[in-house]
Amino acid sequence: MIVNITTIPGPKGLPISGNLLAFRRDPLRFLREAAKEHGDVAHFRFGPSRHVYLISNPDMIKEILVSKQAHFRKGKGLQVARAVVGDGILTSEGQKHIRQRRLMQPAFHRERIATYGESMVQQAISLMDDWKAGDVRDVHEDMMKVTLAIITETMFGKGLKEGADQIARAIDVGLKYVSTKASSFIDIPLTVPTSSNRQFRESAELLDKTIYNIIEERRREGDQGRTDLLAMLLAARDEDDGKGMTDEQVRDEVMTIFVAGHETTANTMSWIWYLLATNPEAEKKLWAELDAVLGGRLPTVEDIPNLKYVNQIISETLRLYPAAWTINREVAEEVEIGGHTYKPGDTLMMSQYVMHRSEKYYDRPEDFIPERFEGDLLKRIPQYAYFPFGGGPRICIGNNFALMEAALLLATFAQKYRFQLADPGKPVEAEPLVTLRPKGGLMMRLEARSQ
Ligand code: HEM
Q1: Burial letters for 421-442: b for 16+ Cβ neighbours within 10 Å, e otherwise?
Q2: Any idea which positions bind heme (predicted)?
Q3: Following CA atoms 292, 297, 299, 301 in sequence, which dihedral angle do they give, to the nearest 10 degrees?
Q4: 105-137 tens-digit pLDDT
Q5: Do strands 50-55 and 347-350 pair parallel, antiparallel, or not at all (unpaired)?
């Protein structure tokens, strides 16, 4: 039976702006309440005519991301990201996306990324050069720094320090710009000379220049045995027509990997430190594992399967604080899901934050219990009740990279230091911008760990 979509209930809104203000005031709360009250599908409006549906049923989510994915395009927020990442695999659609994804996939195979393990650990060690016991630091800033250094080195290889620093600064401006734009919903065109627009354009030009110089240099010199991602992008050839990527396409993919590949992991690391600091039992268990498996030496990729509790901590952190807190899709072609027909232009939201904290699938959903991932939890619950990396043809291409990086960083830092909240009385709020980050950073005190 096809139900008329206007009959789908949802939170009450205002005549013109609909539910936009309530959503913007506290997006996570708004979504959780909508799902709690209205079940599998909740309908609301952003502005007079933009219809949004929050989908909180795992089978429907699967249809949207997997079996009926061809009826959708990426949501509006990501379309804004094009200003930074151009038409790379995060933002491109249809045949172009399929082609680019096929070209890039080999760079993310398990065996290939395993070669990045050493660089991940070394970057963690060099970050700690600046640390000493007793320091009170913004650990979130540190995590951003180390994940950016890692993505830069694995992308461009060593020896690009100067370019990398410039890129880091410019990306920072770009990301702030996208965050503000995506969450403001007010579209001021880039040509309007506001100060943020001007700053953004300047940093975008600088980024372009830096990246195009690197591409040109690499094309001239050849890869000289390099195995970094850029070498792979330049060497990639399409199976069908044997063609490689244009410089512009390489630029877009490089930017995409920079943007998609560091803030998400940095947030995950920050939430890990926060959750460990507030759950000392879990922290003790982690130390016992690190001491037993590593005994004070640096971790390697081969250790990761033996670091079982480390992996459970990461899974549980991605459950409670999924760096990607929602995936949005816009209907491109009329489509039926769960008995409802959605029209072109409708927005469907699927929120990891909502699903991962649902009592339907998780006991004590608000509590940090890494052990819940010990058994067959992921076999018992529906597939899309836990989807930190999305699913279907657009599943995160960097998921193995991210999990490996998080495990190595956690094992390296936690062997040397314990992170305590600088102000334990002050709750750390989650701020849902493009990614879910600790609001205002994460001030922590470093304590040396005696082994
Ligand atoms: C904990 C860390 C990470 C999380 C939680 C995460 C999450 C996600 C999610 C949910 C998507 C799907 C978005 C959608 O369907 O609309 C995605 C896509 C993507 N991610 Fe990640 N990601 C992480 C780390 C990374 C890393 C390290 C890289 C690169 C090295 C990366 C590169 C990408 C790219 C390129 C896409 C677009 C894929 C496509 O559309 O084909 N991500 N990520």
Answers
A1: bbeeeeebebbbbbbbbbeebb
A2: 396
A3: -100
A4: 888 888 888 989 999 999 999 999 999 999 999
A5: parallel
Report phi then psi at 341, rounded to 5: -100, 125
Give the containing element (helix H, strand E) for 372: none
Q: Which domains does the chain have, with CATH numbers?
A: 1-81+325-387 (1.10.630.10)
Provide, rounded to the nearest whole percent, the portion of the chain with pLDDT above 70. Answer: 92
Q: Is the CB of residue 150 below 6 angstroms from any atom belonging to ligand 1?
A: no
Q: Does the Cβ of 389 fall within 6 Å of ligand 1?
A: yes
Query: Element (H or E) spanning 402, and its range?
Result: helix 399-416
At 133-177, the pLDDT tens digits run 999 999 999 999 999 889 888 877 765 656 666 777 777 777 777
Give the model confidence (pLDDT) of 62-106 as tens digits.
999 999 999 999 877 676 678 778 899 999 999 999 989 988 888
- Name the residue type at position 287: W
Residue nearest to atom 19 of ligand 1 (CA): 396
Q: Is 57 in the pocket of ligand 1 (CB under 6 A)?
A: no
- Residues 289, 294, 298, CA angle at the centre, nearest 5°? 130
Q: Does any ligand 1 atom lie closer than 6 A to the CB of residue 257? A: yes
Write down the number of H helices and E strands in the chain. 18, 12
pLDDT category of residue 187 using cuts at 50, 70 and 90: very low
Sign, CA dihedral 375-376-382-384, equals: positive
- For residue 283, the CA-to-ligand 1 centroid distance in Å is 28
pLDDT at 192: 58
